[in-house]
Structures are given as C-alpha cells and as structure tokens.
Automatic annotation (TrEMBL):
PROSITE patterns: CBS
PANTHER family to which the protein is assigned, alphabetical: AMP-ACTIVATED PROTEIN KINASE, GAMMA REGULATORY SUBUNIT, CBS DOMAIN-CONTAINING PROTEIN
Pfam family, any one: CBS
CBS domain span: 53-119, 291-349, 373-432
Cross-referenced CDD domains: CBS_pair_SF
Record's protein name: CBS domain-containing protein
Record keywords, A-Z: CBS domain, Repeat
Lineage: Eukaryota, Viridiplantae, Streptophyta, Embryophyta, Tracheophyta
Amino acid sequence: MAGSESLDKEISSAVSSCEAYFEKVQSRKNLPKSLQETLNSAFAGIPVSSFPRVPGGRVIEIPAETSVSKAVKILSDSKILSAPVINKDHESSLDWRERYLGIIDYSSIILWVLESAELAAIALSATSATAAGVGTGAVGALGVTALGATGPVAAAGLAAAAVGGAVAGGVAADRGIGKDAQTAVDRLGKDFYQVILREEPFKSTTVRTILKSFRYAPFVPVSTESSMLSVLLLLSKYRLRNVPVIKPGEPDIKNYITQSAVVYGLEDCKGRDWFDHISSLPISDLGLPFMSPSEVISIDSEEHILEAFKRMRDNNIGGLPVVEGTNKKIVGNISMRDIRYLLLQPEVFSNFRQLTVRNFTTKIATAGEEYGLAIPAITCRPDSTLGSVINSLASRSVHRVYVGDGDENELYGVITLRDVISCFVSEPPNYFENCLGFSVKEMLNR
C-alpha cells in the first residue's frame, strides 16, 4: 500500500509540474486568442502520417533482452541517440502496452557506466579485489554491502563491483596493471569500449534490467490517424523528447518524432503567414525565457565536471550553461554528449573526480574530431526574435539556446526545444482523454 501511495504521489507531482509549466507558458505568451485557436485548428487538421519519416524509413527497435554492450553498438552504428525497447515475450501483440517497455537512451547508458565506475572505486578501495571476491569474470557483492544499498542502487552496486572486476581482473590484468580500485577506474577510459563489449556486467546485463533499475523515458505512442496537435502537446506540455507513431492493428512502429525534428519542421515553415508573424516577435513578447535567471540550473567553471553530470541527471536535463563570477557570465556549455569524451580519454578519466568544468571543456576544445567536437554555448539576447532562436536551434543542431544580457553576457535564461514548441500550441479541455484514449496518469505510470 505504501508503495502504491508513493507512486501516486510521484505521478501527481509529475502531472502538477507539467500543468504548472504549461499554465505559465499560456499566461505569458500574449498571442491573440483567435490566432492560437487558428493554430490549434491547423495542427489538429494535420495527420501524423504526413510528418516526414525517419532516415531510412525504418524505426530501429532494441529487444529487451539485448545486452547493454550490443545496445550501445546498435545506437552508435545507427547514429541515433535513443530507441524503443521491444518486449520479445509479446512481440506478436498488437497492444503497444504489452509490446513495448520504454525507450533506452544512449547518453543515459553512458552515465550509468560512469556512475558504476565511481561506485566501483568506492567499493574496491574498501579492501583488495581478492578479498572482495572480485577477479576475472567474477561479480562480487561488495558494491552492495559497502554502500548498504538495496533496490535499484543495489543493482548498480553489483554492476559497479563487476565493472571494477572486469578492469582490475580482466583487461587490466592482461597489461600487468595492479588490481587496486584507483588503477581500475583510471584505466576504464582507455579500455571503455573493450570493457563494454567484452566484459561483465555489460556482456550479460540486459536493457530490460536497466529499464527496471532506472527511470527511463516512457513509451507513449500516437496513432497514424492522430493529429500533429497531439504530438506537439506531448513534446511540449508533457516533456516527452520523442513520440513513437503506430498504426492500429499493426505491430511495428511507423515513425519516431522528436523535439528536434519538429523544430526543424518549424524552420521550414518560413514564408507562411502564421509562422512569419509569430517568428518575427521578440522572445520577450512571447514570455520567453519562461524561467527566471534564478531558476536556470547552471554550473560554475571551477566546479567539478562530475557535479555537472550529476546535476543534469538529478534534474532530468541534457545540458548546462557554464558560468563565471557572481553575475554568472556565460562562458561555455556542457552536455550529456560530452560524457563520451570523458570515457574515451584515459588521461581525462583518470582524474575525473578532481577535474573542473573549465579544464574539461578546454580539453574537449583541443581534442581531435574523432572524439566529437564540443558545442559552444549558443546564445541570444532578450530582444532577439523567436525566428532567430529557431534558426539557431535548427542550424546548429542544439537543444537549447541561452539568453545573455548586458555587456558581460550575464545568464538571463534558457530557451529549449520544448519552450519553442510550446509557443505554437495550447491544450483544449480534456484533449488527451478524448483524443488519445488514455489518461495522463496512465501515461506517466508506464
């Protein structure tokens, strides 16, 4: 009973957060009611089936029993950041609730690996790898007992001990490296892909296990017969980053619409009266940015890089502005994508618990292209037009634009893909219950 009450409170809190965000948006947008109704009517008249298909025309799905290592390879080879997870036990089911378990995200997997390595260092430093029973191919429980953890954290602890064991007793042993915790973690950067593809726990841990242990994106589809208004509301008010499209009576996903894809689509609407009118407005006329400067989550350049990634994880956001000084001058940007560089560079990873954000971003800026180039902070001014912000988001393939004010480019706010989409839609009364066939509570409960 206590667990059920806790879940109900969590769902209620999530719904309240979505409602509060969208109420703020609508109260600050200042669009004429007639124009907003016209936009809603237009989007409601556009079928989801008309939206451009994903590249290649086929949505990549990952079976729940796929190992973490193989899942990473699938995402990397397909050049995608996330994919729906299919339940092979109900593969023939036409009910999406049975067929799909959720959505797995590449950056979340990498963050899980990073956290596991961090826990492994703590666990293995308590005693020797031999005393802990952590050797080649062994999965010790020290990560659990040392931290006194249960549930999802216990699962992470087990994984952590296995990560340490894989490096200290496996890959590292081949190179004659000592089996101490610090050495194990220090070498994980260079040996990352070797570990994740060949060693435990990644060789045997499945995507299903991770979905159970960590809260990942829910699978909330729309029908090909639905309207784009439904998609835009899911991507804005309800904070989904992607919406799968299914066809009633058929099992396979027909399309996969992301926030980025929608903003690209809006950028292509230049020349249409309704878009030109709204996009020509200063962002301040639309109430942007929707968060006050004090509400924007940022990271100081002298704080540790691990704190930046933890802050993103804890607040369910993909990037942070890097700031300096009491006036919070914008000096850079850090995102989940940058974790890849952290793991692939051994000299960086070996010191990641002491590495500052400033030093980390400097190292990325001077790295070769094979590690992925860092994306600098993309900024605008409080008097910039919405159209210029949309152009920056689309042309630079970024998820957020920071608003800088004054001669020092002080942090004034942030505008996300979600915020931009929210500028174009409002929600008719009882729209989801009437048009999507399931309640918001059920959606968030999955």
